[in-house]
Amino acid sequence: MSFIKHQEFSQMINSLYNIPQKISNEWMDEMFSEATDENGRRLSETFANYGVCYRDLSKCDLSKLDEKHFYELAFNSSTSFPSADKMPKGYCPSDILEFGKNPMFDIKKLHKKGIDGSGVCVATIDFGFQDIDHVEFKGSDIEIIDLFGDTGSHFHPDGVLSNLCGQNIGVAPKVKVYHYNTYMGSGEEVDKATLTILKEILGKVQNNIKIRAVNMSGPLLRNKKLNKASNEQERQKLEEVLSAPLLEIIDKLQQLGCEVVTSNRFSQDFSCCDIDFVNKKFIKPAFYKRQDYIEKVSFISGGKVIPEFASESGYKYEPKGCYSWSIPQAVGMYALALQVNENLTWDNFARLCRETSTLKDDVRLANPEGIIEKVRQKDLKNEQTLQ
Predict the structure, then answer these.
(1) What is the DSSP code (8-state) at residue 3?
(2) Which of 7, 146, 292, 322 stands the most exposed, by the fewest C-beta atoms within 10 Å?
(3) Which of 226, 219, 212 is nearest to 266 (CA)?
(4) pTM score above 0.90
(5) How far is Cα 126 from Cα 105, in angstroms, rounded to an integer?
């Protein structure tokens, strides 16, 4: 696999847009809405992801940023900030990075009791993972599997694996993970690769390697043909045809006690939310329906950190959450529950998550200690069939 060097990635990010000497609320609003690059492409998503990451701000003035705006500003350990008089009052980047390492509320209490995913196996299907030597993964049991040669490397598996099994951030730091590198982007080649990987995982499970969940932080299908459908009905029919071979393997895995958790599967029962570092309040990302936060159980993915890509010790603050980081938290929590009771199915797990959840700031939050206590109390032997 080809590796991306830290300096190379830093230079690439720095070339995307310029940072002004005075970073104001108005400038950030423009970057989030109307700003474009030299080719006319909107910069809002790029800026939301990278903000001032890898930037030297030592001569910049951020003092006029209000609370809302500096909460939304992504940065990382490689960001050089100015002196305190040029910073918003009370804004301490190192405190935010440290706060953001807390995986979930009270989860580390469970780790101290030995409930850490030990003895449980899961798999992840994601892009090329290169940062195995990052301090976050020192002690993590990750086996990287390349079935397709050089698929390239990407930051995405850093976020997935750190939330799943990272030693500081991870929900299940002792879970065994088989990480399958796959292709980036979309297209028929990607879906064929997913099918190949799922068949390989099925072979492992049939040979008594008890992989209990497969984390796919994204959709099951990435075929570009779906985007060419002329209407929703045509798209649904095409999706049925394209997904059939994948669903056949997924059904076999499920019958053997292995759940494949894609974004669609996750969203049936769960959602994600952000936490405001300043006010310690839970914020609902704007692109999800409010009702999701009442009916579905949320895992916190925004207002936290992931490993800084192509580094060995840095971290990146992520203001806004997404399913990508919440799915591995849910899979990690499932691994903790399986450590306590191996008869637990994903559907039973989702039900117990809701039964034990707490409603705060109009967000229904996962309750790790409550989940484990409920799993201890339940006799689940007759609630699933493992063949």
Answers:
(1) P
(2) 7
(3) 219
(4) yes
(5) 26
d(CA 84, CA 192): 52
Residue 35 pLDDT greater than 80, yes or no: no
Residue 140 has pLDDT above 90, yes or no: yes
Domains, the chain, in order of start with CATH, read 6-91 (no CATH), 107-265 (3.40.50.200), 267-324+340-377 (no CATH)
Cβ neighbours of 233 (radius 10 Å) = 9
- Which one-letter amino acid corresponds to residue 185? G
Query: How many other C-beta atoms can be found within 10 angstroms of the C-beta atom of residue 285?
Result: 18
Q: Give all strands of the β-sheet with 121-126 in edge-to-edge order.
A: 141-146, 176-181, 121-126, 211-215, 259-261
Please give the radius of gyration of the chain, using alpha carbons only, rounded to the nearest integer.
Answer: 21
In the block, tokens 């903000």 appear at 51
Phi, psi dihedral angles at 81 (to 5 degrees): -95, 160
Sheet order of strands, 363-365 included: 281-283, 270-276, 297-302, 363-365, 358-360
Tell whether the model's pLDDT for residue 382 goes beyond 70. no
User: Across the strands, what pairs with 143?
Assistant: 178
The count of C-alpha atoms lying within 13 angstroms of the C-alpha of 337, restricted to the half-sphere facing its C-beta, is 32
**What secondary structure, in 3-state letters, does 164-178 show?**
HHCCCCCCCCCCEEE
| Strand ranges, E, within the chain | 75-76, 121-126, 141-146, 176-181, 211-215, 259-261, 270-276, 281-283, 297-302, 304-307, 315-318, 358-360, 363-365
Per-residue model confidence (pLDDT) at position 387: 36
Residue 141: both structure tokens together: 């049991």
Give CA–CA dist 310/153, Å, rounded: 10
